[in-house]
Amino acid sequence: MGIFGLVVTSALFSCEDPGELGLQLIPPNDNLSVLSLEIPIPAATVQLDSINTTNRGILLTGDYFDGDFGNVHVQSYFRILPPTSSVTIPSEVTFADSLRVNLRYSYFYGDDFATPHQLSVHRLLEQLVIDTIYYSSQSTLFDPMSLSDTSFIVSQADTLISINLDSLKEELFTVLQNYDKDSANDANFLEQFKGLTLRTDPVSESVIGFNPTSQDSRITLYYTTSDTVVNTVTLLYSTYYNQIIPDFSGSNLAGIVPLTQFDPPDGRSYLQTGTGLVPKLDFQPYFDFLDEDSVGTVVINKAELVMTNLEGLTSTIDPPIQMSFFYTNDTNDFLSTDTDPAFPNTIQTDGVYISASRNGNDPFNLASQSQRAQLDTTDLQYNPELTMFLQLVADGLITREDAQNILIVPFSFVESPTAVRDFGRNLDRFAIRPDDLRLKISLTKLK
Questions:
Q1: Which of 212, 247, 282 is at the close of a domain?
Q2: Count of Cβ atoms closer than 10 Å to residue 116 Cβ
Q3: Which of 247, 280, 306 is the last residue of a domain?
């Protein structure tokens, strides 16, 4: 097999009754070879841009640097909803006791959680607009004067952080004393209280995430009536997004340019969700194997892409749970169908868009016959099956021009088939060396 792989099993035999093997098209006495081989697949790195981080189920804040992926700065912005119903605070109550911002932990990224996390809360000066997509490169104007500053040690055993926001309590108390729930008052509320942002001092050297949809994540105003009963008014969070700004200088990715193929000097390829780093696969070695004179016609019995020995991980830095595969070319961006709306072309199903044929109809039924790249959480590797895809390439039903380059993209929550960049949920990542990325194929060769 040359450089393309090692033959593990080879059986040469004559077929007296090809129908017994389900190979009715093979003439009698034709030789069959059953082979197992591995083909290394080269991979470069591409940084995608315009990552959608809107309402991804997490508020991120922090800074982190390492020599592999460089520095990442993360800041979250979120809107405060008006009360869900009318509020009446007894006239005898003339002031609020306290105001707390409560957030439930949901994510930890980094390796220095012993250094105190320096977190500040700032008031937004611009409204966040509902049903608007916000991207990782965006920011919203905020007051540089913080409403609250807090320092704390991050522990994965903790479940909730409660931040004092008393600097805002009297203003909010005045608005809520006699609040009639209607559209006009809600609009006035949103104009006055546009939202908040969470910022972290870079000295913290870690990134933490909170779940804004948790029943524990809310803003709570406390006041006491004359009978010494403590009462509360609760406000929830609404539209939110994360600004994620990578700086690759001083790292193995220094010099990478968005949507430009990049070959890191260490020879590895890189993936990171929120920063848009994805491996770009080159299937030319598979084409070279098919073009060998001795290969002939092949039936792919099973094929998988083995991705093992993932690097750049720690106890608090994980690889993505799932990934999908998308067609690309020299533009290093997603290729889409000619339909309206356009669908991103994928060779795997990801639960929403299923096109594998470049026309949006998926006539080869790849969606039902292939799986996403699902993380094996025990061995920390991926083994997505590509049997049908490679067979269609071998048969010429998917052209080599279409199939040569594939992007491996973290899978995330996708509400729309056109919202292909909806994977900016966190900073999960890995780096992989060339020898650890290969096709593992079992095939029958027909001579």
A1: 247
A2: 14
A3: 247
The residue among 120, 180, 170, 108 whose CA lies nearest residue 144 is 120
Q: pLDDT at position 397, please? A: 83
Confidence class for position 314, pLDDT limits 50, 70, 90: very high
Q: How does residue 154 score in pLDDT terms, banded at 50, 70 and 90?
A: confident
Q: Are 388 and 364 in contact (CB under 8 A)?
A: yes
Q: Which domain holds residue 390?
A: 39-50+251-446
Instruction: Please report, as a single letter, which amino acid is at residue 388.
Output: M
Is residue 368 over pLDDT 50? Answer: no
What values do phi and psi take at 367, rounded to 5? -60, -35
Between 117 and 284, whose confidence is greater? Answer: 284
The answer to whether residues 163 and 273 belong to one domain is no
Q: What total number of domains does the chain contain?
A: 2
User: Is the pTM for the entire model greater than 0.90?
Assistant: no
Query: Residues 190, 85: contact at Cβ < 8 Å?
Result: no
* Paired tokens of 379: 């061995």
Please tell me whether residues 197 and 271 are part of one structural domain: no
The answer to whether residues 195 and 272 belong to one domain is: no
